[in-house]
Specification:
heterodimer; A: alpha/beta; 7-stranded parallel β-sheet; two-stranded parallel sheet; B: alpha/beta; two-stranded antiparallel sheet; 10 helices; 39% helix
């Protein structure tokens, strides 16, 4: 299968590309970020998905499927830039899929779409509304990109569109929101709160994307691995120490005294859980994760100490 | 007590992972600490008498539906303790907690670790589909707002529990809780103070201190009630079924009150 992968230079996307190439798929990637040494069988175009040159890749490569992993999730980028990249990029991908008759397209989104709030249900199904931007406005562009990609299901019914909402990933790469939060030896927590965190091994996350591609799914799917665990349990299992801080100080000292430089809205994500029900994905695809919670945390912890 | 509690926690039929946590975040460690405290209150401080335990299924889904009888949720805690200490094997009743508690530091953490989830239909539905035992007080915050002289009365019941029972084909175990209003005799509800603290109200007892008296408490469980339907019936049909449950609970309270030895049973006067 000819697979086009916008956002190929992200760490999870690299794992996906490597797995696809190993399964004899022809892989072409688009990203403004370079990937110096891609594996054999993977071709990289260092261009912006929103530019004319990217459309040329669609025209000449004629992909059988597109996996859009080109959204910016980190918060270093300014909000207006993130909006342009995430929404403009998502629009460009599906417009080109429509123009060049790509049969299948996958949008890889995040479970943070559902938001963390004290009055949220513990488990979120795909039908739950996006509350992510309510308390965390910096997530609005990702929520909008997810909904925009989902709207392709009725705007372009000829494209088998899938929206995958992945929980946090954890693994040897130390890439991702949860890994970034736990990279320090001491993990800050909001005193009196210890939310459940749902995570899966980065290899399992990549496998889930590959399986969704090969099964030619259509629809919106939550994707998760083992059952969630409290943040303190994950941190201790990874050999970290937790230090609870009263909320008023936590908010006041964000970005200082060793606390992560997070926006105020992110504090809700350290107080309340976001847990997804991925039964639909498991039933539709027959997907089973390989790494349990212990193996996943070990993979994260051991890679740092080695 | 501690050893007994640990042994009973081990026998709870919940899918704990190697980390001692189930898929709702219930933690064996927190359960052991919590039930040690509840055990002291249940067995020694309130000397709770539990009747009709044979009506509670040992496995499978069920809904415990009963009355609030005091300004603080003593009744809920003692019902949970009765299933843990009196049943073989022990079961964990999971209640639906007022939303404001999830905003309160420590309360949020502890309620979640011991399986008492925020009161939302989605949470209740999921627990029942997982064959858990759900505890619901359909009077809600109106029930805990009862004043001392209203303690044996029943106020308006919500109907959500009945729709849920019909939707999930869940038997309802009615119960009457006796003595909560004597243990914590509310004479006034400070609504404004409560709002300032993010709660619906703060109950003020006759003796001002927010500490319950060591009054003997009792819980009377009735026979399971089975209702047929889809849960999509019109309000009138649902209300009629709710009224049957309310009437049964009123009977259990009446029976329980008559069975009590004295009006205010202090230690040494069972």
């Amino acid at each position: 299968m000819r697979v086009l992968l916008p956002g190929i230079s992200g760490l999870l996307a690299r794992i996906v590309a490597t797995k696809l190439a190993a399964r004899d798929h022809e892989v072409v990637g688009i990203d403004v970020r370079p990937w110096a040494e891609p594996p054999k069988g993977v071709v990289i175009h260092t261009i912006d998905i929103r530019k004319r040159a990217a459309e040329d890749v669609f025209r000449t490569f004629r992909p059988d499927a597109v996996i859009h992993m080109g959204t910016v999730t980190h918060l270093r980028e300014k909000s207006e830039d993130r909006y342009r990249i995430n929404l403009g990029g998502t629009r460009a991908v599906w417009d080109h899929c429509h123009t060049y008759k790509v049969p299948a397209a996958i949008f890889v989104g995040r479970h943070t779409y559902y938001g963390a709030a004290p009055d949220s249900p513990l488990y979120h199904t795909e039908e739950d509304p996006p509350s992510g931007a309510t308390s965390f406005p910096e997530l609005a562009d990702l929520v909008a990109a997810d909904l925009y990609a989902g709207s392709a299901l009725w705007r372009f019914p000829e494209i088998a569109t899938s929206v995958l909402r992945l929980c946090y990933t954890l693994g040897p790469s130390h890439h991702g929101t949860l890994a970034g939060f736990m990279n320090a030896r001491r993990v800050p927590m909001v005193l009196g709160f210890d939310p459940l965190f749902q995570f899966m091994h980065e290899d399992d996350a990549a496998d889930a994307i590959v399986v969704a591609l090969e099964k030619k799914t259509r629809g919106v799917f939550n994707v998760s691995g083992p059952p969630p665990l409290p943040l303190s349990v994950i941190a201790h299992a990874a050999g970290r120490k937790t230090f609870p801080i009263p909320e008023v100080f936590f908010r006041g000292f964000l970005g200082r005294f060793g606390l992560p430089g997070l926006p105020q809205g992110a504090v809700a994500h350290i107080k309340y859980p976001i847990v997804i029900d991925s039964m639909r994905f498991k039933k539709t695809i027959g997907y089973r994760y390989e790494h349990d919670a212990e193996a996943t945390i070990d993979a994260f912890a051991k890679s740092q100490t080695s | 007590m501690r050893r007994e509690v640990r042994e009973r926690v081990d026998r709870l039929e919940l899918p704990f992972s190697r980390f001692g946590v189930d898929n709702y975040g219930i933690s064996k460690k927190h359960l052991a600490d919590w039930f040690t405290l509840l055990g002291v209150l249940y067995k020694h401080y309130f000397r709770v008498q539990a009747h009709g335990m044979e009506h509670i299924p040992r496995r499978g889904r069920a809904m415990l539906i009963g009355n609030h009888s005091g300004g603080i949720a003593l009744d809920g805690a003692m019902v949970i303790a009765s299933l843990f200490f009196e049943l073989e094997p022990p079961r964990l009743a999971q209640g639906m907690v007022e939303k404001f508690l999830n905003r309160v530091p420590l309360a949020s953490l502890w309620m979640n670790r011991v399986g008492q989830l925020t009161g939302l239909p989605e949470n209740a539905l999921r627990l029942l589909e997982d064959d858990r035992i759900l505890m619901v007080f359909p009077e809600g915050a109106r029930g805990t707002a009862k004043l001392y002289w209203e303690r044996t009365s029943l106020v308006q019941f919500g109907t959500g529990f009945m729709r849920l029972a019909l939707q999930t084909n869940t038997p309802i175990i009615p119960f009457g809780f006796i003595g909560g209003g004597d243990a914590f005799p509310t004479v006034f509800n400070a609504v404004e103070l409560g709002r300032m603290l993010g709660a619906p109200y703060i109950p003020i007892s006759a003796y001002l201190f927010p500490v319950p008296l060591p009054v003997q408490l009792a819980v009377h469980y009735g026979e399971p009630m089975h209702f047929e339907g889809t849960g999509n019936e019109d309000d009138k049909a649902i209300e009629a079924k709710v009224e049957q449950v309310k009437s049964r609970i009123a009977d259990l309270i009446d029976h329980g009150e008559k069975a009590r030895a004295g009006f205010l049973s202090l230690p040494g006067r069972p």
